[in-house]
Specification:
The protein is mostly helical. It has five helices and no strands.
Length: 107
């Protein structure tokens, strides 16, 4: 049997609170949750990398005419952060629609 190692790490109170909330929801201890996360770190990190790449809007090249149209038709006072929020909502709706379409195709 492999010798276990003690790993220490400093985290913010917000991260600790988040860990505790997830552990409570999953019905496990904080240390159990951390062990589970570490045991699955390869797949979790791959997922995080993939998701970060998927959400990087600077890699998406829009047709200049479309971008200009959006800027011209954006309500006055709308900030870039609000526009990003709207994009996230649309991405979420598109993901849901895609999942539904795949589900209907399997019937």
């Amino acid at each position: 049997m492999a010798k276990t190692q003690l790993v220490t790490v400093r985290i913010t109170p917000e991260i600790l609170k988040s860990l505790d909330e997830v552990a409570l929801q999953q019905g496990m201890s904080r240390s159990g949750l951390i062990r589970d996360l570490l045991e699955n770190c390869h797949s979790l990190y791959y997922f995080l990398q993939t998701e970060r790449e998927r959400q990087q809007s600077d890699r998406i090249i829009l047709d200049g005419n479309l971008s200009q149209w959006v800027l011209e038709h954006t309500p006055p006072g709308l900030t870039s952060e609000q526009l990003r929020f709207i994009r996230n909502i649309i991405d979420h709706a598109a993901d849901k629609m895609s999942a539904q379409e795949k589900g209907e195709g399997n019937k």
